[in-house]
Amino acid sequence: MPRAVRERMMMDAAVRTFGRRGYRAASMDDIAEVAGVSKPLVYLYLNSKEELFIACIRREAAALLEAVTAGVQAGVSADLQLRSGLGAFFAHTAENPDGWSVLHRQARTHGEPFAGEAAKVRDELVAFVTGLIGAAAREAATGREAATGRESSPGGGAGELADRDLAGLAQALVGAAESLAGWAIETPGVSAKEAAATLMNFSWMGLGRLMDGERWPTTAGR
Fold first, then answer.
1. What 3-state class would DSSP assign to 12?
2. Which residue has the higher pLDDT, 199 or 160?
3. Closest to 150 (Cα-Cα) out of 158, 187, 179
4. Which one of 100, 197, 201, 213 has the largest count of C-beta atoms within 10 Å of its C-beta?
């Protein structure tokens, strides 16, 4: 068997074992048994348990990012781009529950260097979503200008959002998607399409009003 094929088999076994048993409880013996190879062979190919776990995090992170970026439809409105990206995110996590467990649960709860690796993929997702929301805001502002016949003021139109607003909204949306992915995986009958629609209903309706210039009154509740 070619080395690359055998190594992929062992990595698949490692992700399955770490995802289901947890980093602490999983052993190299368990991984070797699932892969159908000897433990010395696992050490020979993939080194220590810590290095193997880091390799699993990086592989699953790359696969998730690739799925999301590839899933965004080109040539459609910004809201449909966001919808398609969310659909790809939920489809990937549903199809790879062990990989999602490694990224979202195991890596984040066992300290460094694992938490740092998990933070990298989250930062990349947030940056990507920030771009999508920013595109939606610019699209909304352009639409308002066309409807009113007025250009945005130098400080930005009602549909434009400050960088800090964009960053905060992206953080909130990614956090909600992560939480919803765990729920969707554990709840029978919830499809990726349904999960994406749930989050769009929750977030986009509010985003649409925000882009129209509406804000929560700062004096509310005083």
1. helix
2. 199
3. 158
4. 100
129, 75 contact by CB (below 8 A): no
Given a contact cutoff of 8 angstroms between Cβ atoms, the answer to whether 30 and 21 are in contact is yes
Packed helices 3-21 and 49-71: angle between N→C axes, nearest 10 degrees: 90
Using a 10 angstrom Cβ sphere, with 0-12 exposed, 13-18 middle and 19 or more buried, the burial of residue 170 is buried
Residue 58 CB neighbour total at 10 angstroms: 14
- 179 CB-near residues (< 8 Å, 6+ apart): none
Query: 30-39 contacts: CB < 8 A, separation 24 or more?
Result: 35/9, 35/10, 36/9, 37/6, 37/9, 37/10
Helix (H, G, I), strand (E, B) or coil at 206: helix
Nearest 5°: the CA angle 69, 201, 183 is 70
How many CB atoms are located within 10 Å of the residue 34 CB?
Answer: 18
What secondary structure letter does DSSP report for 57?
H
Which amino acid is located at 64 in the chain? Answer: L
- Please give the pLDDT value at position 62: 96
Query: The pTM is what?
Result: 0.84
Tens digits of residue pLDDT in 50-71:
999 999 999 999 999 999 999 9
Q: Which amino acid is at 134?
A: G
